[in-house]
Design brief:
The complex is a heterodimer of chains A (about 500) and B (about 260). Chain A has about 500 residues and is of the alpha+beta class. Chain A is built from 20 helices and eight strands. In chain A, the strands form two sheets. A six-stranded antiparallel beta sheet of chain A has the order 3-8-4-5-6-7. By secondary structure, chain B is α/β, with parallel strands linked by helices. Chain B has two domains: about 160 residues, P-loop containing nucleotide triphosphate hydrolases (Rossmann fold), CATH 3.40.50.300; about 70 residues, no CATH class. Chain B is built from nine helices and ten strands. In chain B, helix 3 crosses helix 4. The radius of gyration of chain B is 18 Å and the shape is globular. Classes of the chains: A alpha+beta (about 500), B alpha/beta (about 260). Chains A and B meet through helix 8, helix 9 and helix 11 of A and strand 6 of B.
């Protein structure tokens, strides 16, 4: 057993090519992932793809340039510089096309990078007798065949890019998050954009020899995306992304040894698998967490149905089974709903079931008020008696203050619903200390006059007088006020709306 | 702070014309805003309200005309104007905490080779306290309510130490209670002597909230106290007799 493990894990480490692959791959992955964080936050993933493809033209041009002028084969620095030039040309032409025409950014990227890539392919194939570049090698990458000069290029590019990112972290952070503000405090936004594009080109160029043109964009964005699902700060996201990049390379290389597969493919496969795991299990932004949250969420409708059940059985504890009659959902959901309502302080457990807390009572009254006002309204618009209750039961879930106040006013602030049941007053509006219209106050409430409508001189009330609300008259269409001197004032609907009172406590 | 009191107007805009393409978004706008005022910018959709804000920030270059901040050319006044973006234009999934956003206000004061110092941390914390968000420092910004999100960006503007704050629709899409809370922060900020320019869409509340109103639709139609600017004839001209504007105005007048 240990022998097999040894063979699988330690033996590859003794091979020089494996060591080089590990080092080169890790370096490239770290810097790719860190830059990738900025790339995905700026939504320019597609641009990474474009740059990697454009490279081939630059590599071929650099190769030819050195061969023609100095007769040196495969001069690495020249090919690197060529790649960077090709990248800059691609970015510039993308910007140009989308600026001067109606072509949008994504289309411009697609056009220009395939164009430059095609130019590279043609160049390589036309000069195939002079250029010794293996196109397949270029497209698929060869992490196990990393040459020393590739390693050096990688390490140099990585240390340069990482230094830039660390030194100018704040600048990259702010220009990515809020370019308008960045410009307003004098940051050179355009220059920083170019710096980032250059960094992306550099890391892409250094990673292509490992994983190839097609997969390099994955190395750029996948570890960063995994980190994105796990972090709430950019600096931590970058550290985490770098870690994921390295684990992808290590895991991928072993996978490639065990399966004897292509190196780049194995690395990206492992990286993608890693992302999928994170996508499922991430504590806050993962699918599992999301599913759990949704499961725990109790529908508002259920809460209101339960409150409705209580408001019709005042003072008596209700057990779970007694509630089922009032609620359309199945029992399992009901139990969870009741539990969450206890947690929210709406219900209190008692012997023989549950009772409403004070807050629950208020909520229940609010819904009862909505229900009965809707019934009155439906009656008002001529709905037959038998349909009133079920329709109002659906409509009571529309109980925002504004809608209900509108109904109340429209119906003349009714005291009873069509079945003769009392409509509760609006608790919040009539709370002690509030200023509200006389029209919404019920009999027996008292208060101090705040303002008297213009033109109402006959009631001889002035601000500061104490009044008590009396019973309604004329089929509830007239309000009466008892003054402290014993007299009575009578108001119609309009006057009662305009007559403002600061309410005393009950 | 110990800086000498500058007596120049907070913002001076002269003959400002800004265009995107052939049609100017702003045409020949001239206005002088004195210091210490809470100014509302009103006008229909697409009237150039946001463009004006961006021109005052120096983010869009005028085709003609000048913007001066406290008597200085806008290009030389970088950092004296702070900006609170529209809520819709912010990436709320961005991995950044409330405290980090407030700290961004200091970036203009920190040389690129240095880390934020104790002074900067103090400014950021004070700004968060001012908007009552100090307890949320380590929250990611997407996990806040709409009003809290707005206040975080207010804190960033305050931490910047700018004398002039520009706010783009801070009241868009928040409920009435939140609107009150934001307004209270604006009032307190003005009380410290700062000038605030706020893009606002609700004519009904404009009179109540602001010291001065600026009515624009490509051109400046009026600038002055609300009772002067909210003139029915002016409004019908700017809003082209759209019914909504009139009913809002009726409500505004009824409330007074």
């Amino acid at each position: 057993m240990t022998d097999i493990l040894f063979q699988a894990i330690v033996a590859p480490l003794r091979e020089t090519f494996f060591q080089k692959a590990l080092i080169g791959g890790s370096v490239a992955a770290v810097v790719c992932s860190v830059v990738g964080c900025l790339v995905i936050l700026r939504r320019m993933a597609f641009l990474g793809d474009a740059l990697s493809h454009a490279m081939i033209a630059g590599v071929a041009a650099g190769y030819l340039f050195m061969k023609v002028l100095f007769a040196t084969e495969a001069h690495a620095p020249a090919m690197l510089v060529g790649s960077l030039i090709a990248a800059v040309i691609t970015v510039a032409s993308i910007g140009f096309v989308s600026r001067v025409s109606r072509i949008k950014d994504d289309t411009a990227i697609g056009i220009m990078y395939t164009g430059v890539f095609a130019a590279g392919v043609v160049l390589v194939s036309v000069f195939r007798n002079h250029i010794h570049i293996d196109l397949m090698h270029f497209i698929m990458g060869d992490v196990l065949g990393v040459a020393d000069h590739d390693l050096w290029v990688s390490v140099l590019a990585a240390s340069f890019v990482l230094s830039v990112i660390i030194l100018f972290f704040r600048q990259f952070q702010l220009t990515t998050f809020d370019p308008v503000m960045a410009a307003s405090i004098g940051m050179p936004v355009v220059l920083i954009d170019y710096a980032l594009t250059t960094c992306v080109s550099l890391v892409v160029v250094s990673a292509v020899s490992m994983v190839g043109v097609i997969l390099v964009v994955g190395l750029l964005i996948t570890p960063a995306a995994s980190a994105y699902l796990l972090s709430d700060r950019l600096d931590r996201m970058m550290v985490l992304a770098a870690l994921f990049g390295v684990t992808s390379v290590v895991g991928g290389l072993y996978l490639c040894m065990w399966l004897d597969s292509a190196g780049g493919g194995a690395i990206m496969l492992f990286c993608t698998f890693q992302f999928l795991v994170v996508l499922v299990v991430a504590p806050r932004y993962g699918l599992l967490a999301r599913w759990l949250r949704l499961r725990q969420m109790v529908p508002q409708q259920l809460v209101e149905d339960i409150l409705g059940a209580f408001s019709r059985r005042i003072g008596v504890p209700l057990s779970l089974s007694e509630m089922t009659g009032f609620v359309s959902d199945e029992t399992r959901k009901l139990a969870r709903g009741v539990k969450s309502m206890v947690r929210d302080g709406l219900l209190v457990p008692r012997e023989g079931g549950f009772v409403l807390s004070e807050q629950g009572q208020r909520e229940a009254n609010r819904i009862l008020r909505a229900h009965r006002l809707w019934e009155t309204y439906l009656r008002h618009v001529g709905m037959p008696e038998a349909e009133l209750h079920p329709r109002a039961h659906q409509l009571e879930h529309f109980h925002d203050t504004e809608s209900i106040s509108y109904l109340d006013d429209l119906l003349g602030h009714p005291l009873r619903d069509p079945h003769g049941a009392e409509i509760p007053a609006n608790y919040a509006e009539c709370a002690a200390g509030n200023v509200c219209s006389v029209s919404v106050l019920r009999e027996g409430r008292s208060g101090v006059v705040e303002s008297v409508p213009e033109g109402m001189t006959d009631v001889s009330l002035k601000p500061g007088d104490k009044i008590v609300i009396g019973p309604r008259r004329d089929h509830d269409a007239k309000w009466t006020l008892r003054r402290s001197d014993g007299g009575t004032a009578i108001l119609d609907h309009e006057a009662a709306d305009a007559f403002l009172v600061r309410v005393d406590s009950d | 702070m110990g800086t000498e009191r500058n007596e120049s107007p907070a913002i001076t805009v002269e003959n400002l014309t800004v265009s995107f393409g052939t049609r100017p978004a702003l045409l020949d706008v001239s206005v002088t805003i004195e210091q210490g005022l809470l100014v509302g910018v009103v006008g229909p959709n697409g009237a150039g309200k946001s463009t004006l804000i961006k021109a005052i920030l120096g983010f869009v270059k005028p085709d003609f005309g000048t913007v001066r901040i406290l008597g200085e050319d806008v290009d030389r006044a970088k950092g004296r104007v702070a900006y609170v973006p529209q809520r819709g234009s912010v990436d709320w999934d961005y991995p950044i905490t409330v405290y980090e956003v407030a700290m961004m206000g200091r970036f203009g004061h920190i040389p690129w080779w240095r880390d934020p110092g104790p002074e900067d941390r103090r400014f950021a914390n004070e700004a968060l306290e001012m908007v009552r968000m100090a307890d949320f420092g380590s929250r990611q910004i997407g996990q806040l309510s709409g009003g809290q999100q707005q206040r975080v960006f207010m804190a960033r503007a305050l931490a910047q130490g700018a004398d002039i704050l520009l706010l783009d629709e801070p009241f868009a899409g928040v409920d009435a209670a939140t609107e009150r809370a934001i307004l209270e922060v604006l009032d307190r900020t003005r009380a410290t002597g700062k000038t605030l320019v706020v893009v606002h869409h609700d004519l009904a509340t404009a009179a109540e909230y602001f010291d001065r109103l600026m009515l624009i639709k490509q051109r400046l139609y009026a600038y002055g106290p609300p009772e002067v600017v909210l003139h029915p004839e002016l409004l019908s001209e700017v809003y082209e007799g759209k019914l909504k504007a009139f009913s809002l105005l009726a409500r505004a007048e009824g409330a007074r």
